[in-house]
Design goal:
Largest sheet of chain B: 10 strands, mixed
Order of helices and strands of chain A: HHEEHEEHEEHEEEHEEHEHHHEEHH
Number of domains of chain B: 2
Oligomer: heterodimer
Structural class of chain A: alpha+beta
Number of strands of chain A: 14
Order of helices and strands of chain B: HHHEEHEEHEHEHEEEHEEHEHHHHHH
Largest sheet of chain A: 10 strands, mixed
Strand content of chain B: 15-25%
Number of strands of chain B: 12
Shape of chain B: elongated
Helix content of chain B: 55-70%
Structural class of chain B: alpha+beta
Distance between the termini of chain A: 24 Å
Number of helices of chain A: 12
Strand content of chain A: 15-25%
Chain lengths: 388, 385
């Protein structure tokens, strides 16, 4: 027969300070654990949503990012005239040759310089990315030095607002619009006209070609056609896969750092739980003797104390997850190691993160409570009763 | 004397609990120490900077090149002793997982600028003589078991193609914070190859390292260099090597802030564990404290006793952690070598760890001590268990 659940629960309530301190320690551990998982997930979500599944991106062979890549004008034109590419409403091909350059801008929060992507694109660039739409001001006129900036740039960087202008390449570049790209990586970019930007940066080559395929299944045909052409020396990726790859290194770093830290921290928290549970057992020796004497088995005593410890863990876990949930309103902005450019993303909470965190807190409770529970279960009835 | 014995006896009255608390404190402070060391490692490039070196790069960003022809004009600025062109090569050895930093440099000027890279003269000469030669750091050589005379082929990510080269020299760092995991090879090798493969990209360089005689004139010289190229196609940005390295660190500032915040969270976690132990111990001994009070011991003395017990536990833990930290960090160095070339425990970290040990001991005892001090004797006697 099992000891009622309320026995375990109410025992926690009687020693409030101790319960609060132990659960508090666990809550902090779970908080760190959850926060890092949320951060890694937010990074992934941002970069995955940046690409569109129907788009193909062409880079120079061997280059891992847009910034490293370079495609000569002739080659770029050959890439945009394939039959696999869809046509837009105006009858022109839905493909854009783009040049990507990093530009150092001053951050509002720290006053330090961080690299922002300046994307020189073609009119099709907007149509290729349905996530991007104008939020304020107007679109830059093609063929001029007007530029527009993403919402994350407008929010995070000094002097990034409509009416201001950037200066580089012996010219002023007036900001005429702000575009909303949701939670995608484009929100951390600046867009202008490729034909204007390339000479300003002294470049004679595009960085990438982005093409929308008539149907996603044509991707393999397009890839094969481009990669087999020895003049082009290029490689083709699905846009979604390309952006997901960009999050790999950073995500791995965040996850490894976060998980290894919480593993160490959790040792501390489990020790805390163990101390609490040992004292709970030690303080209730006669009680345990009585329970045994009126017929509860060793197994049910073990279960009762283990449950008490699990409640403790769950209490801490729920508090930690609750604290971490508050982070979902924050954005995190840092330089992506892989692309060397600024990227801002949110802490993203998903059901599996909640599940994992609560499971982790339960685990801490079980490990911390196991030995004390065993001690309680192994007690000799007579000796225990005599201590009263 | 008797009191001291009493304090010690009380501190270890529940041996298991005391040991668990000490281990808890030690584990958490170890984690704290490791995190501080990671933060230090991040700043290693900054602390290794010399005040006598400036870096000139394109004002747009580091990824934009500068014309190599700028070198001559930079040399004309007064106060400059040496100028070396250099470029981040970003080559990959076999697989992206084998990441290490690799640069092309103008060897002769570059090694004049970096006296902390110690190379045997014979090897230095062999490297200078061989156009396709490379020089590598000692730790990098250990990592891939490379020896002098080995051929290494890098796959270019920024400069396409395969780049074979021969290792001609291995350098050692003159200081503990010198990065020994870098591969350098000749700027001329890159430039001449680019002339053939992609002529539009030849004659360019990523940055100029500049040596100056008088570190106090750094700001003035930087401005003079940048003024030279104002309103040119590629405007420059010159800053001290320290500021340049800090620029890299500040790019990951959000992550660094997060690690710093977390390293203080761990202090809170141990505080919770230690405070719990002290609270339990004070509660269990309420009767004893009442007896002591009846005998005439005053609240401040009883509070001090509790404080000492708490300090004994936390300081034992802290001392244990700080003793274990350097060997543990040494163990991690082998794994983290590719992320953090420099990874050693600084004295500040040890001092901070011990300091937090004291702070945790004091804070953990505060509430129980206040309670013991203020509780009435009769009330304490009445409480059972």
């Amino acid at each position: 027969m099992a000891v009622p659940l309320s026995y375990s629960w109410r025992n926690l309530k009687t020693r409030r300070l101790t319960t609060a301190l132990t659960a508090g320690g666990m809550a902090l551990v779970v908080f760190v654990f959850t926060a890092t998982l949320m951060l890694a997930e937010g990074l992934r979500q941002t970069l995955v949503s940046t690409g569109s599944p129907g788009n193909a991106i062409v880079l120079r062979k061997g280059s891992e990012t847009e910034v490293q890549s370079g495609i000569e004008r002739q080659a770029a034109s050959a890439m945009t005239t394939r039959p696999e590419i869809a046509l837009g409403g105006d009858g022109a091909v839905l493909a854009a040759r783009e040049s990507v350059v990093l530009f150092g801008l001053t951050k509002k929060s720290t006053g330090k310089v961080s690299n922002v992507v300046i994307r020189g694109t073609e009119p099709a660039g907007m149509a290729l990315r349905p996530q991007v739409r104008l939020a304020a001001g107007r679109l830059p006129r093609p063929g001029t030095s007007e530029i527009m900036i993403g919402t994350a740039v407008a929010k995070g960087f000094a002097k990034a607002e409509i009416g201001q202008s950037l200066r580089f390449g012996k010219r002023d570049w007036p900001i005429v619009g702000i575009f909303d790209a949701g939670t995608t990586g484009f929100a951390s970019e600046i867009w202008g006209d490729a034909t204007q930007l390339m000479p300003a940066f002294g470049r004679n080559a595009y960085s990438i070609v982005l093409a929308s395929l008539r149907e996603p299944a044509l991707f393999d045909a397009y890839k094969e056609a481009i990669e087999a052409d020895p003049r082009l020396q290029a490689e083709v990726w699905r846009e979604t896969r390309y952006y997901e790859k960009q999050s790999d290194m950073m995500r791995k770093f965040l996850t490894v750092l976060g998980v290894s830290l919480t593993m160490i921290f959790s040792l501390g928290a489990m020790i805390g739980a163990m101390i609490t549970m040992y004292s709970a057992v030690a303080g209730r020796v006669p009680e345990i003797g009585t329970l045994r004497a009126i017929g509860f088995t060793r197994g049910s005593i073990l279960a009762a104390f283990l449950l008490e410890s699990m409640f403790l863990g769950l209490l801490g876990g729920a508090a930690g997850v609750g604290l971490a949930a508050g982070l979902s309103f924050l954005t995190f902005s840092t330089t992506n190691f892989q692309t060397f450019s600024e990227l801002s993303f949110r802490f993203a909470m998903t059901p599996w993160i909640v599940g994992l965190s609560l499971g982790f807190s339960l685990f801490m409770g079980v490990v911390g409570g196991f030995l004390p529970a065993v001690r309680a279960a192994r007690m000799n009835i007579v000796a225990a009763l005599r201590e009263a | 004397m008797l009191l001291i014995r009493l304090i010690f006896k009380n501190a270890f009255r529940h041996r298991l609990r005391s040991i668990l608390t000490i281990v808890g404190v030690a584990v958490a402070l170890l984690a704290f120490g490791l995190m501080r060391t990671v933060l230090d490692a991040w700043h290693a490039g900054v602390s290794a900077s010399s005040a006598n070196r400036l870096v000139t790069r394109n004002a747009v960003s580091l990824t934009q090149p500068l014309p190599y022809a700028y070198k001559g004009r930079i040399r004309q600025v007064s106060g400059i002793s040496a100028v070396a062109a250099g470029n981040w090569f970003g080559g990959v050895y076999l697989d992206e997982k084998n990441f290490f930093a690799n640069f092309v440099v103008e060897a002769e000027d570059f090694f004049k600028l970096y006296p902390e890279l110690v190379v045997p003269p014979a090897e230095a000469k062999a490297f200078t003589m061989d156009r396709k030669g490379a020089i590598i750091g000692r730790k990098l050589a250990d990592r891939f078991h490379w020896r002098i005379g080995d051929t290494v082929t890098l796959r270019g990510t920024i400069f396409p193609g395969q780049w074979p080269m021969t290792i001609r020299a291995i350098y050692k760092g003159a200081r503990p914070d010198t990065d020994e995991t870098v591969l350098y090879f000749h700027w001329a090798y890159l430039d001449e190859t680019m002339k053939k493969r992609a002529p539009s990209r030849a004659g360019q360089t990523g940055f100029f390292m500049i040596g100056i005689d008088d570190a106090t004139r750094a700001a003035e010289i930087s401005k003079a260099i940048d003024d030279t190229f104002v309103n040119s196609q590629a405007e420059t940005l010159t800053e001290t090597e320290r500021a340049f390295q800090l620029g890299f660190v500040s790019m990951s500032e959000a992550i660094l802030l997060a690690i710093t915040a977390v390293s203080y969270v761990v202090i809170l976690i141990i505080l919770a564990v230690a405070a719990n132990t002290m609270a339990m111990s004070a509660r269990e001994r309420a009767g004893e404290f009442a007896v002591l009070k009846t005998l005439g011991f005053r609240a401040p003395l009883l509070g001090t006793m509790l404080l000492c017990e708490s300090l004994i536990l936390s300081m034992t833990g802290a001392a244990l952690a700080m003793a274990l930290l350097p060997p543990l960090a040494g163990f991690f160095t082998t794994f983290l070598a590719q992320y953090f070339p420099i990874f050693f425990v600084s004295r500040t970290t040890i001092v901070m760890g011990l300091g937090f040990g004291v702070a945790v001991g004091v804070c953990a005892a505060a509430v129980p001590a206040a309670r013991v001090g203020s509780v009435r004797i009769a009330e304490a006697f009445r409480r059972i268990g």
